Amino acid sequence: MAPGWPAVLRHGDVVLRPMRRRDGKAWLAVRARNAAWLEPWEATSPVPIRTPPPSMGQFVRQLAAQGRSGAALPFIIEYRGELVGQVTVSSILRGSASSASIGYWVSRDVAGRGIVPTAVALAVDHCFGPVGLHRVEIAIRPENAASLRVVAKLGLREEGTRLRFLHIQGDWRDHRCFAVTAEEVPGGLLARLLSTTAGRHAADPPPGG
Predict the structure, then answer these.
(1) C-alpha span between 103 and 83 (Å, rounded)
(2) Calpha distance 157→129 (Å, rounded)
(3) How far apart are CA 124 and CA 151, in angstroms?
(4) For the residues of 56-69, what is the DSSP string, one character each?
(5) Is 4 helix (H, G, I), strand (E, B) or coil?
(6) Phi, psi at residue 164, to the nearest 5°?
(7) Domain residues of the chain, as ranges?
(8) What is the pLDDT of residues 42-74, one digit of tens each?
(9) Which of 31, 130, 131, 171 is the most exposed place for a label (fewest CB within 10 A)?
(10) Which H or E run includes 197?
């Protein structure tokens, strides 16, 4: 079994855990409800895929195999006990690189509640802890304002723009790249997020009468 997998990570109402076969109905419902919301940001293939998509059972087994092999850490996001999205640690490199990429999506009806920043922070801290990685990056389309707010809340460092980086919606799209290393968050990314959030709330003026 790969380091750090399987795992269940939690903070408050947010839980990250491996996907189970019985999650299939809920996962399909969330994806169907959010198809238009997610489509502009999801990677596509530049060449036609002629094989049929996997069944839900096959999909879950593929995710489990990726976790066991250490190729990826595919987490489901639960919020108050309901499946609302996913966070996936992928492109995991060992050795001198010790790095990975993180991708995520969340249901539109719970967006803006701090779920994704918390989920990403949990995943990053897990990568720097039990998984033993050194660097994590997130690539975001410049047009994706919601996702850019996530990395802004987390305080991730921007490294530049990768031109024509991923194929999305029929063309190669530019992405802004953000990253964090273990040395930048010695106390953990979640702790930094919570500290920053608390600081913002403390700076808010009291309600007026």
Answers:
(1) 17
(2) 20
(3) 12
(4) HHHHHHHHHHHHHH
(5) coil
(6) 45, 55
(7) 9-201
(8) 999 999 888 888 999 999 999 999 999 999 999
(9) 171
(10) helix 189-203
* Overall size of the chain counted in residues: 209
168-to-87, 165, 173 alpha-carbon distances in Å:
19, 9, 6
Asked if 124 and 131 count as a contact pair (C-beta separation under 8 A), the reply is no
Place of tokens 């009806």: 109
8 A C-beta contact, residue 64 and residue 18? yes
Pairing of strands 135-140, 82-93: unpaired
Residues of the chain by 3-state class (helix, strand, coil), percent to 5: 40, 30, 30
pLDDT tens for residues 176-185?
999 999 999 9
Place of tokens 């990568």: 127
Which residues, other chains included, contact 180 with Cβ-Cβ below 8 Å and sequence gap of 6+?
Answer: 124, 135, 136, 137, 154, 156, 157, 189
pTM of the model: 0.93
Of 18, 19, 22, 20, nearest to 7 (Cα)? Answer: 18
Q: Write out the CATH class of domain 9-201.
A: alpha beta
Helix (H, G, I), strand (E, B) or coil at 96: coil
Q: What is residue 203's predicted lDDT score, i.e. its pLDDT?
A: 57
For residues 149 and 177, what is the distance between their CA atoms, to the nearest angstrom?
14
